Amino acid sequence: xxxxxxxxxxxxxxxxxxxxxxxxxxxxxxxxxxxxxxxxxxxxxxxxxxxxxxxxxxxxxxxxxxxxxxxxxxxxxxxxxxxxxxxxxxxxxxxxxxxxxxxxxxxxxxxxxxxxxxxxxxxxxxxxxxxxxxxxxxxxxxxxxxxxxxxxxxxxxxxxxxxxxxxxxxxxxxxxxxxxxxxxxxxxxxxxxxxxxx
Length: 198
Prior knowledge:
single chain; mainly beta; six-stranded mixed β-sheet; four-stranded antiparallel β-sheet; 0% helix
């Protein structure tokens, strides 16, 4: 496709690999530690695999027909499935948080009337004086850990927040706001964080 090649093989235009099959080589990079693009599987489930063949045949990257991408695994279970640490930022200075559980966070700030001011994934209602219910839009699969903090109430005095003695459920939690001095239920703004399993 060119009369002025700049390399040993210079192709201008599409390249077609024929007679492919499971583990067929599509492109071999014969560098110091060779890499090869290979087909994995056949039919509708065919995937493209980038494999290091100079280092024991480790499978390093795979792109499935369904759209899942695996790094460090040949059987990705999500759109991006990474087996190993993830570093982020312009110099890789940030590490992705990790844990044994698949967790999610719901956080918010609610005013004294029970109206959500910031946050998402929940709704609130004031049932009575100092009695609020937080309802999660998508329930957790197990009761989350809740931390609630009351702000200074509109009357000017300090207040504190307590979650229901029964504790949060997968779908929501009740929060009670009390004044510091007399420990009576009062209407006051509060913030909260809920962390639990997806």
